[in-house]
Amino acid sequence: MKLDDVLAAAGKYRRPKRRGRGIGSGRGKTCGRGHKGYHARAGSTRQLGFQGGSTPMLAATPKRGFSNFKFRNEYQVVNVASLERFPQGSKVDASALAAAGLIADAGKAVKILGSGDLKKKLTVAAEKFSALAAEKIAKAGGTIEQK
């Protein structure tokens, strides 16, 4: 089901809250803003993560330990089976893989993994190779160039 297929009867459109339409409406008089104060006025905002004046959970939780998130190396992975599409004897590098649509960005690091079979002799250039991938490329008569 797509969102644009939803019928109006099923709740595609939600009526806006009609404020200031009398006490009986439930949103009359002060319109849900309370009496006076900063937040009763126009243009009032609350700080992101504000929890009523008590210490926010983000500040209250202890920060300890080390995360390698900022320093990790990300690789675009390509399986050996995907290299079958290249012609015999060709050089396969990041730009060739990007042109074939196997990776998104030729500027980022590439790792070749060993899933599948390779029957063609290729020269494959990448930043990393799994042991099985290097073995399969060599077995097919190809060579690897580790950057």
Features:
Ribosomal Protein L15, Chain: K, domain 2, alpha/beta, three-stranded parallel sheet, 147 residues, 2 domains, 13% helix, elongated
Specify the overall morphology: elongated
What CATH first level of the largest domain would be assigned? Alpha Beta
* Poorly predicted tracts of residues: none
N to C succession of SSEs? HEEHEEEHE
What is the alpha-carbon Rg in Å? Answer: 30 Å
Largest sheet: 3 strands, parallel
Category from helices, strands and their pairing = alpha/beta
Would you write up a description of this structure?
By secondary structure, the chain is an alpha/beta fold. The protein folds into two domains: 18-64, no CATH class; 71-146, Ribosomal Protein L15, Chain: K, domain 2. Helix content is 13%, strand content 14%. It has three helices and six strands, in the order H-E-E-H-E-E-E-H-E. The strands form two sheets. The protein has a three-stranded parallel beta sheet. The longest helix is centred in the last third of the chain and has 9 residues, at 131-139. The mean pLDDT is 91.
